[in-house]
Amino acid sequence: MTQDVDLEIAPDGKGIKKEDLPFVMNDWDAYAVEEAILLKEKLGGTVTAVNMGNEEDEEVLRRCLAMGADKAIRVSGTEGLEMDGFVAANILSAVLKNLDFDLALTGTQGEDQNLGMVGVMMAQKLSLPCSTLVTSVEIKDEGHAVLKGELEGGIDQVVEINLPALLTIQTGINEPRYVSIMGIRKARKKELKVIEYGNLGLSEAETTAMTCVEEVFLPPETEGAEILEGTAEETAGRFMEILKEKGVFS
Amino acid sequence: MGKIIVVAEHRKGELSDITFEMLNKGRELSKILGHTVTVALFGNGVEDFSQELSKVADEVILVEDESLDVFNWEVYRDLLYAIIKDEGPAIIMMGHTAWGMNLAPGLAFKSGLPLATDCVNITCEGGRIFAVREIYSGKIFSKVSFREESPVMVTIRPGSFPSEPEESAAGKIVRKAFVPLTGDLSTRFVEYAESPAGDVDITQADCLVSVGRGIGESENIDLVRDLAKSLGAVLSCSRPVVDKNWLPKYLQVGTSGKTVKPKAYIAIGISGSFQHIAGMKGSGTIMAINKDPKAPIFREADYGIVGDLFEIVPALIEKASEMHQ
């Protein structure tokens, strides 16, 4: 995900200019990684972090390793693909199907595209039980977990799920630990495997996007707020006058 | 002529607004495309809902069973999979809600249908369907096309369309038999859990001073608390502040927190995710302070100050105390 910066639309009109933009680990993913590591610390086992992207995107995996993941896998060579949630789910599932695991965690969504579909599609592809917007995970025994999942209006649902399962993690489930640059450097000793996308054995149908971004554009101009101009003191003064006029403050 | 299928959503005996929002959009599209609108309604003892929905749709497909008392993604997925096969709809609409997020991607994948999630609009150009989405935290919009013309599946962001039902000629109600899942459920509902109530009820406040991610550090919240105090207002917050455990959940405004309608809502360091805006847009006067002039909160606010909250909030506290004297 990008952080708060001015975004510009790319010349082809189908995305944003990504050069020079700082990219960091997606918030939801950070919570998912932390949850995996917390479970490992409590119950044992290993944590494998998986992503796809170029060498720069390895930074995210290094961060996962520094947080406490045991090994990492990057799928390379996907840059030329027209990517959507469906293609991403197929690629990541192809990696997971060769791993032996009890639990697969993803973020609920990515912050940039907010698709919220990749994890659930992976579960479908891999025939795994699936729960979304998960805000707490309690492993009952080898075969079951009890989860809380967020609904609307401040209500959670409690569900029991068979393992192995795929859970999409909601923000706030834990406090992702801080890792230092030193920590990331140290994690370089841990195993990071690169798998060429072409070696995953995916069919053309699996790697052909089902949706396509035709164009991107700036939000339509709306009336929006009346912006108060001036120094902090002037704007504060006007602000208070407005509250007074509205009868909120007397 | 094809069908637009809207999947009805309900919880604890109430039809959700999103159902009517989708119906309104579905009917608008049906007029342009010459389609009809069908509602898929699953539940237990929801005959009343089917009557209500038949007034705003051409058809209601009703499946009732005790096990449909609560939502289950596997059961819904398989029921809808069968309905899609039988009906061959042009468009399938679900809410981009907790339900929809659990259900739609798996259903689309299983059915081999293209899916666009979290759509704020569905448009039609020359008979082709496009989905409009917000990306990069609402700073950019994208227009998405589908590889196959139809059927297509979309999930709709709550609050994108009006929810007031527009009545039309009575639609028919078609009962379909419940087909249980082959095999056991892999996910079983246990109960609903409400987050604990606090000592303050932010839904009752006349004025809310609400703090967001822009506050930076937990210690800085006292500054906003002081402003609330000097205005005689109640402190509330947006999701990131609760996620970081800086304030309790009962102070959270937004779709996963409380919906509030105070006379005045003052948003400080809140960029204005749609989930937050959905929880406060009914407020009387909305005032926002944010350093980013492009923050979506300014699209919803009546008045805004673009600047550093650490300069503006102390100035506000001073003005408030001056005015008290």
Task: Give an overview of the whole structure.
The complex is a heterodimer of chains A (250) and B (325). Chain A is an alpha/beta fold. Chain A has a single domain, classed as Rossmann fold (3-Layer(aba) Sandwich), CATH 3.40.50.620. Helix content of chain A is 27%, strand content 25%. Chain A has a 5-stranded mixed beta sheet. A 3-stranded parallel beta sheet of chain A has the order 1-2-8, sandwiched between helices. In chain A, helix 3 packs across helix 4. The radius of gyration of chain A is 22 Å and the shape is globular. The N and C termini of chain A lie far apart (44 Å). The mean pLDDT of chain A is 93. Chain B is of the alpha/beta class. Chain B has 2 domains: 174 residues, Rossmann fold (3-Layer(aba) Sandwich), CATH 3.40.50; 123 residues, Rossmann fold (3-Layer(aba) Sandwich), CATH 3.40.50. Helix content of chain B is 30%, strand content 30%. Chain B has a 9-stranded mixed beta sheet, sandwiched between helices. Chain B has a 5-stranded parallel beta sheet with strand order 14-13-15-16-17. In chain B, a hairpin with a 4-residue loop joins strand 8 and strand 9. In chain B, helix 3 packs across helix 4 and helix 5 packs parallel to helix 9. The longest helix of chain B has 17 residues. The N and C termini of chain B lie far apart (71 Å). In chain B, 53% of the residues are buried. The model of chain B has no long low-confidence stretch (mean pLDDT 94).
